[in-house]
DNA sequence: TAGATTGTTAATCGATTAACAATC
DNA sequence: TAGATTGTTAATCGATTAACAATC
């Protein structure tokens, strides 16, 4: 991972998408692809694809394009997916349990090793063979095991304190499903999954589209406008 | 929702965050706030806050700042959160069930009305009182009920066909947890929650940070480098 | 070799930040 | 009124797209 020039967040966010498309091509036994072809599939410009990739090196060949398998493996290395990562889940509620049961993470090398909760009814249980511990045991666990990422699936009210503790105990990555923005030291990385926020932007876009259609309808033929939402169901 | 000038996606994505911070201020009985104070809390520039808000109108007052409750309610309206939205879950697996059980959506006006699956063991059951139907009944259900958003929590392989059907039957919003990019008509809005992608970018950033620390360490004192990851756990 | 397609520089576009006159 | 802070225009910064020489 050369870190000579800073890679822009926009590029980093596109990397998993490239990785996914190349994986699909690989499964379809396609051996080579040009930026133009990939551009058509992914709905981004060929120029952007070439720019993005060239942040990390020249993976293609003039007149040929890119070798799918080679590029796939290079992106895999860039993303750091050629290793295993140990994760813990903090908060064994609905979402925490769902993530533990979601076996696809493991296939990618993301291994959930333990779950922590405060609920006595959960502590001592196992989920998909993974033990649920008392949060009080978390400090000891982290000091005796290598924890790369903590998955935070606990209530808003508790998230800040736990994130603070985890940072203190040396956890460097937090995947935050709690609906708060965490305040952590600069050397701790947080990736937020704010589901409610995501849903709200979807709702905004639906309404925006609808009100535009409205205007178009009105302009076009003055038809009465059917409401998109019916409060009485 | 005036749609005179197009609002940039960056602004739309920040709206739920403003809404959340204003809600917190409201709960703390804070009645007014300046862009400068909010800037400090949210870690964005005061300039950006004022620019963002002025896309939708002049909600503040010179010399005073913004009235928290008023601004909160304005953003609520902008996001369209002054109504109820009916949702269905397609795919009653881990994540689908977790979302059904996550009661916070309902508090915001997002109501899950039905779940659809192909698994005979699930069909006929209820989750938090919400019925699980056979996917075969989905067309009829959608034609007889108002469905604003379909939550797609089904396997990659099935997602494309289902999204296609849903679009055909008139569903305008899809909240997509399946790990594929859906191809839908222009008047259908898709918001993706690609969990694996999100985790991958976190991993990238951790590794990037680590390799930088490496270089700093090396430059600073030439200390031996402790690997961040231990494959043997 | 001729054709295709990359890598990369330059041009454009959009988003963020700075600055300040307007005004409460 | 004087001080504070907005709304908004202008300047800067960054990201995307276009263009093309290099080269396989």
Automatic annotation (TrEMBL), chains A, B:
Domain CoA-binding as annotated: residue spans: 80-181
Subcellular location: Cytoplasm
Subcellular location, principal: cytoplasm
Signal sequence interval, chain numbering: none
Gene field: rex
Keyword terms of this UniProt record: Cytoplasm, DNA-binding, NAD, Repressor, Transcription, Transcription regulation
Listed SMART domains: CoA_binding
Pfam families assigned: CoA_binding (PF02629), Put_DNA-bind_N (PF06971)
Subunit structure: Homodimer.
Name this polypeptide is given: Redox-sensing transcriptional repressor Rex
Record-linked PANTHER family: REDOX-SENSING TRANSCRIPTIONAL REPRESSOR REX, REDOX-SENSING TRANSCRIPTIONAL REPRESSOR REX 1
Binding sites annotated in the UniProt record for NAD(+): 91-96
Start-end of DNA-binding region: 17-56
Annotated organism of origin: Anaerotignum neopropionicum
Functional summary from the UniProt entry: Modulates transcription in response to changes in cellular NADH/NAD(+) redox state.
């Amino acid at each position: 991972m050369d870190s000579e020039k800073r890679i822009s967040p926009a590029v980093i966010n596109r990397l998993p998408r490239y990785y996914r498309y190349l994986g699909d091509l690989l499964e379809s036994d396609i051996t080579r692809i040009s930026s133009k072809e990939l551009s058509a599939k992914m709905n981004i410009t060929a120029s952007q694809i070439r720019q993005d990739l060239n942040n990390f090196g020249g993976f293609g060949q003039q007149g040929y394009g890119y070798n799918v398998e080679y590029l796939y493996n290079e992106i895999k290395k860039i993303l750091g997916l050629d290793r295993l990562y140990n994760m813990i889940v903090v908060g064994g509620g609905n979402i925490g349990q769902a993530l533990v049961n979601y076996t696809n993470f493991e296939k990618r090398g993301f291994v959930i090793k333990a779950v922590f909760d405060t609920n006595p009814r959960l502590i001592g249980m196992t989920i998909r063979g993974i033990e649920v511990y008392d949060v009080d045991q978390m400090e000891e666990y982290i000091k005796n095991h290598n924890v790369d990422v903590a998955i935070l699936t606990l209530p808003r009210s508790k998230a800040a304190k736990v994130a603070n503790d985890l940072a203190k105990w040396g956890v460097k990555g937090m995947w935050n499903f709690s609906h708060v923005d965490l305040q952590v030291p600069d050397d701790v990385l947080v990736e937020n999954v704010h589901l409610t926020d995501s849903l709200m932007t979807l709702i905004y876009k639906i309404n925006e589209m609808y009100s535009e259609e409205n205007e178009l309808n009105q302009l076009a033929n003055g038809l009465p406008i059917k409401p998109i939402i019916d409060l009485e169901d």
